[in-house]
Sequence to fold (192 residues):
Amino acid sequence: MNQSLFLEQINQYYPLSDETAEAMFAICTEEKYSKNDLLLEAGHMARYYYFLQSGLIGYYTVDEQGDSIYKTFFEENSFVASTAAIIKNEPSDFNIIALEDCAVMQYPVKPYRELLEKHHDLALFHTYYLEKNWVVKKEPLEVSLKYETAKKRYLQLLENNKLYKRLKQHHIASYLGITPTQLSRIKKEINL
Fold:
């Protein structure tokens, strides 16, 4: 188990004591998921939190027409979960899928939440992580989706060249809320 990388990422938000880190590692398992495996299926309870060691994960829902609508993508060194479903203790509205072969550290929701109550430093990590990634990062994305054109959002996605090159065109179109044909037009426009 690659505990050092996992702990390094946690400590970027708030440093854990040795005792807390040991308690955390005690509930973790290292798992591998193949490309297209679902880590969580919509309509099911979220049973785990994940730390993505390698690979690429997508977070999507399915619309009334049966099309996948991608909300976000997670690259290496990301923490992944159906956070709202866990907080509300309800089935997830989203699917979490391996877009590439993935290696993760996974830790079960109930024991982790119990550790949050026992270990102040872990609770602070969790709070700071949520604030930075689900509030600070999310707000500009919501504004972008509401007010910016698909072309401008596409150009912003292009800025993260490493992620862009890993995504399939239908994932990008879905994320932008457009059809693959519209994406092709935008790409032609930009290349002029």
